[in-house]
Amino acid sequence: MTATATAWQLDRPGPATDDGPLRRVVLEPPDPAPGEVLVEVHACAVCRTDLQLVEGDLAVRRQPVVPGHQVVGTVVGHGPGVTEPAVGTRVGLAWIAGTCGRCRFCRTGRENLCEDARFTGWDRDGGYATHVTARADFTHPLPDGFDDLDAAPLLCGGVIGYRSLGVAGVGAHSAGTTLGLYGFGASATCVIQVARHWGVEVHVCTRSEREQRAALDLGAAWAGGYDERPPVALDAAITFAPSGDVVVAALQALDRGGVVAINAIHLDRVPELAYDDLWWERSLRSVANVTRTDVREFLALAAEIPVRTRTEVLPLESANTALRRLAAGDVGGSFVLAVDHS
Ligand SMILES: [Zn+2]
Ligand SMILES: [Zn+2]
């Protein structure tokens, strides 16, 4: 373990530039509290939610705070009362950092709905750092099969995409059914690989022709624009675009009994619907956060398939630049911040 740690802190939200608003601080590695582990960070992927926090679109809950919730590292220390995961274990940290464990949601496998949930890089310091502490029971031992840089982007977009599949009723039993994906960013790129692995026929609507081609390359049966209707009625659809109009387009493309899962924290609005669009037991559901079970199931599946992501690696020192480029749309995949401990 190094004697010092560095972290990129957010003191006050502001526009992402090459010089801010994150500030580099050098400090002692944090002490893990009872029930926590200390993790030496190898890689942290950059999520759009980090940008929303940094620029002030997501209210700051703690100041200063270190962003980053797609963290891969090695356990290097234990707080009081902790024995697992063992020192030396490679682990991932995801968005969900802690829940109460007592409420009716936590007790029924729905900890993603816990009203007392805590989140990595928002309620507690995250992975834009050389070291981070985490609740031991909210770390996820990583399967072999992908290296640190490839695993990091799976920990948010991949996991929430996997949960969206479940909310939409799509699983290993769904071979031969049809699924629509509306929007084709990092999360949808993971979803299509899982759905194809299960034998699901996937149709993709997205504005970008480059993304349409990427979808076809990953096995989509059809790809078109948001204003186009897939050539078959859909058993399920997942929307990623933060637009109510896209939700309605997905609903109108459903077969009887179909489900639309909305994978967006914010939606501009839900437009007025014709009841005919919802009739025949069609349904509309939102997807909120993830559970630890989602993280672990998805990581095991992603290693087995294996799910591939497109990444651009930058050093941790370029955290502000990664956010600035994400804001500008200057990214072809996911940014991953690599931490050099030498
Ligand atoms: Zn995220
Ligand atoms: Zn709870």
Please outline what is shown here.
This protein is an alpha/beta fold and 342 residues long. It has two domains: 5-145 and 309-338, Medium-chain alcohol dehydrogenases, catalytic domain (Quinone Oxidoreductase, Chain A, domain 1), CATH 3.90.180; 159-286, 3-Layer(aba) Sandwich (Rossmann fold). Helices cover 23% and strands 26% of the residues.
Bound molecules: zinc ion
**Spans of 5+ residues with little confidence (pLDDT < 50)?**
none
Might you state the CATH topology name of the largest domain? Quinone Oxidoreductase, Chain A, domain 1
CATH architecture of the largest domain: Alpha-Beta Complex
* Proportion of residues in extended strands: 25-35%
**Helical element count?**
9
Shape: globular
Give the CATH superfamily of the largest domain.
Medium-chain alcohol dehydrogenases, catalytic domain
What does this protein structure show overall?
The protein has 342 residues and is of the alpha/beta class. It has 2 domains: 5-145 and 309-338, Quinone Oxidoreductase, Chain A, domain 1; 159-286, NAD(P)-binding Rossmann-like Domain (Rossmann fold). It has 9 helices and 17 strands. The chain has helices at residues 48-55, 148-151, 157-167, 186-197, 209-217, 244-252, 275-278, 292-304, 319-327; strands at residues 5-10, 22-27, 36-45, 71-78, 90-93, 96-98, 118-119, 131-135, 140-141, 178-182, 201-205, 222-224, 234-239, 254-262, 283-286, 311-315, 334-338. The strands form 4 sheets. Strands 3, 4, 5, 8, 9, 16 and 17 form a 7-stranded mixed sheet that branches. The protein has a 6-stranded parallel sheet with strand order 12-11-10-13-14-15, sandwiched between helices. α1 crosses α9, α3 packs across α4 and α3 (157-167) crosses α8 (292-304). The longest helix has 13 residues, at 292-304. The chain is globular, with a radius of gyration of 20 Å. It starts with a strand and ends with a strand. Bound molecules: zinc ion (ZN) (2 copies). One zinc ion binds next to loops.
